[in-house]
Amino acid sequence: MVPTWKVALVLTLGVLAVSTSAIFIRLAFESASVYNVGFSLVIAASRLSLASLILLLTSLKPRKSQGSQQRADFNYTAFYYAIGAGFCLSLHFATWITSLTYTSITASTTLVTTNPIWVTFITWLWLKEKPTFLTLLGIGIALAGGITISLSSSSSSSINTSSQPLLGNFLALVASWAASFYLLLGRESQRRGLSISKYVTVAYTTSALVLLPLPFFVGASYINYPSQVYFYIALMALIPQLIGHTSFNWATRMMSPIIVTLVLLFEPIGASLLGYLIFKEVPKPLELVSAVVILIGVALAVLGTRRVTW
Fold it and tell me: How far apart are CA 260 and CA 12, in angstroms?
């Protein structure tokens, strides 16, 4: 049994790591002076490819007298769950990174971290864990906040001069749905036998392979960008991906995924603070109020869940 303090420490480190993601993405856009879907896909694919390469290189290290036993214990179902998680992760990054070109950091990171709502619904349908009235009330409140933040104008805080906040907010919401399936599939993969290192290697590599060819379909290129772009992509791979995502994936095996997604609600707070310090991006009052409403709704949804257990 892993001590509670260790899980809390890993989750804290994970939150700090993923809070930098939107900042590095925004810095990459500004360095390249390119704000379109193609470059969003370049960032997503490059980030996952570099993280996967690091994991694959470290996994090549030989381990004594474990090969035959590992082959005997190999669980194909766990492997398939990891591949499914990788597909969901690719959709998550393709939609979320693109959303940051159309809407504000506050709106995007708030909507993309509404995972507790969707995880509650998925576990209801998949694991037959019926939510309580308080959970449904919280979901309704959070959805009301999401609608409000989607309708609020975010153009002044977006880096795209032809900002489309409604599109950006919708993409962030799709990214949240994809991330919810990604976390749940990852949990099942680990519970069925894959270690955290093997799981993230399979999931991140699958996601990278899905994303790599996509930029070419929209006429984007992986080369001829300023060196700062590649520096920020490297930071994305190392900090929010390998440290942040891996921390949350590990934690889903130790506790309820709803608790893990609740912790993720601290990401928009950290990202918004960094956005203010680095970009002087001040959220509009309606965005702040909507974000608070979403957080309250999600908190109620989690408190009303019958089986929030470690």
Answer: 11
